[in-house]
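If your schedule permits, I should be very grateful for your opinion on a structural question. Kindly check, if you would, that the fold set down in the tokens agrees with what the sequence suggests. Thank you for your consideration; the sequence and its tokens are set out here:
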Amino acid sequence: MAPKSQWIAIIVTVLIHLVISDKFFQVSGVSHAPLSGTSAQAIYYGKFAVTEHNRHKGTRMVFEKVTEGVTKLDGEAFTVIISIKAKNDARLYRAELFRASSKSHLRLQHFVTVGTFEAGL
């Protein structure tokens, strides 16, 4: 049987590999997985969030792209960072969406500004 220090080294190595590989990470103790900003799912969530925000707030924001996203592994919660077109700049928004079950409607829960940058950069 291997000494205790070898088992600890093995466990630490595996944990470091999981963190570096970025396949899964923890947010508030809940398992999440990255969502590619170019995936059809992320684009759907981004467009949905902008449409819902425009409908509820009477704005005319134009969806540009999803820069990053994350999905809760049980498929109930989704967070996307969205780039919105503006006159001379683009704004980044964090949209949080929620679905109570696979058969329920998607809902926009939060839509907040997280930054701006000059268009074309």
